[in-house]
């Protein structure tokens, strides 16, 4: 293995360095959870720009969520300094929007086209009835596109215009895609158009964390990367920096029956012999399960009654555990309420991550419509309008909206809290701000520093890590999820197992799984069995927790690790 003598790559391990410093051409990085994907991707971009004289403006980094794009941008800034601004970083939708804005002439859209909001789409649907063709033409007549259009229209443009394709290929000669396992058909086609078969396309991801097929993602694109792209180089990252050895061993066993990665390996970088086993609690009821979570949080954080935050200890080190180190994960949103209630009764602060889009929050789109109205963006004025003498953030701080678009005072209060930071991030550019709203910027109520226990669905937990994780409701019917009267097929089960794997691998130091004997599902209380996904994990990796649930130190788990 060739060592790269650059200081930039010093913070990477040997395989991460191989990936970051690989030569041009198609590159697929297959990397499991906790192996440092973002770290590797950002270092590769920085290395290419700083050491190999690649121009930052020739680089395009694509992610799936705005939050992930911001994280990438932030880390690139740290590595490259001001030139990082020249790297194009965005989501697939923002990339599509850029291409559309630069080529409205070819689409028949007006220069100041805008993205339809929910009200616009509902109105168009009501008028169009069942006629999808008609729906589109109604939007077009009003100079609007919808979210799907942001991908399909650029693809259609590029498909028909080889010169345009070449222009973008010249502009973005280096393309990087994070979470490639979640690509869907139209995103894939866009990538194929932007990158030649032998182009400098670097895709990074983990097929075993593909959990979005219900949204049209197809892990098949990941698996056939080397057929699609010429002489693709493959680098695997197997060293996991996140989880203790018992947690990692349990996770690797859990994914084994459905793994899409040949010889799936995850080698623990952390080898603390004192690391606790995975706690397993069999609850009698949902209330009992919630009590178990509260009791354990109490023990970990140390006496909720006096709310001392300094008595928790991890792995025998005298590290402090606080509420913000703890996450409770579940398969369906409906499982959150009993846990939230029980924690609240014990005076434990909680924050629940909402993965909703901002635009779906009450009042937000009304505010956006009103803003358009008062600033003239929805009229004959050009789209790029700044608010005279007032930044967008200031405008929200002192709303003087006239209410003609259905904005209620309580909407303004919610929107000011949520929106002001987004407005700031948009550089006070109203057009960018409205596009962010329309392209589904998530509400990210989650504050990593908040002194609160975090509650999340498994889907929302992707990419995150916490010192302590509870995975509740590990029961047949919930994991894998089953709707009444239906039987999930093999592919659906495999996806549920990947979701389970995502959940287990969020934990750094302590992991607890729990299941209850009875639960109300679909309107009636039923007996429940533990999830069959638990059966494939070696019993020796679990510590069965009884009524006096609490972390105990294992004696012999090292013998049982793979
Ligand atoms: P996921 O698939 O869950 O999104 P990931 O591959 O993106 O995981 P990261 O979140 O980037 O993993 O990294 C996991 C943890 O490992 C982070 O806390 C990161 O700082 C740490 N880490 C990654 N690489 C190294 C390294 N070379 N040395 C030390 N720590 C590292
Ligand atoms: Mg990640």
UniProtKB/TrEMBL annotation:
Record's keyword annotation contains Secreted: no
Keywords annotated in UniProt: ATP-binding, DNA-binding, Helicase, Hydrolase, Isomerase, Nucleotide-binding
Enzyme Commission number: 5.6.2.4
GO terms of molecular function: 3'-5' DNA helicase activity; ATP binding; ATP hydrolysis activity; DNA binding; heme binding; peroxidase activity
Reactions it catalyzes: ATP + H2O = ADP + phosphate + H(+); Couples ATP hydrolysis with the unwinding of duplex DNA by translocating in the 3'-5' direction
GO cellular component, one term: DNA helicase complex
Residues at which ATP binds: 31-38
Every UvrD-like helicase C-terminal domain range: 245-509
Keyword Nucleotide-binding: yes
Domain UvrD-like helicase ATP-binding intervals: 10-244
EC supergroup of this enzyme: isomerase
Family to which the UniProt record says this protein belongs: Belongs to the helicase family. UvrD subfamily.
Record protein name field: DNA 3'-5' helicase
Organism: Micromonospora craniellae
Part of the full-length chain shown: 507 to 1068 of 1068
